[in-house]
Amino acid sequence: xxxxxxxxxxxxxxxxxxxxxxxxxxxxxxxxxxxxxxxxxxxxxxxxxxxxxxxxxxxxxxxxxxxxxxxxxxxxxxxxxxxxxxxxxxxxxxxxxxxxxxxxxxxxxxxxxxxxxxxxxxxxxxxxxxxxxxxxxxxxxxxxxxxxxxxxxxxxxxxxxxxxxxxxxxxxxx
Length: 174
Hints:
Blueprint: E1 11-19, E2 22-29, E3 32-39, H1 44-53, E4 60-68, E5 71-80, E6 83-91, E7 106-114, H2 115-142, H3 149-162
Antiparallel strand pairs: 1-2, 2-3, 4-5, 5-6, 6-7
Helix pairs in contact: 1-2, 1-3, 2-3
């Protein structure tokens, strides 16, 4: 991905720690935007990193969820070749939703992107939250889980190896 394909002109992911054990994940593309809440009952940022890492290799579908107490926000990433379809569905009660099929959830977000654009946006979100909080600050605010350094580095390795991206990728610590 060249500098002309920078995420500022297309798909963006923003990760913000909003309080002790709470985060907001904002997805945006042009005028379309959604704000997703995640609680620390799941390791949401790590799940996002691992899910994004799952889009490399054979065509496949990756699922993970955010616990948004009492809601479930279920992500489905469908990778086909160099493209990724991102769908986020909301379910009203996480106590029963894990047994429900995807079709029972309300579609909150759906978009398709080149893999390089999607993964770079995810990495950029992780990079910015680390720059703002550092590992210790992240752990103190997120509470139950440390910053997912290894998953971010693994995703970064896949991205640099397979996506020909020339944008910045180094983890920045305060």
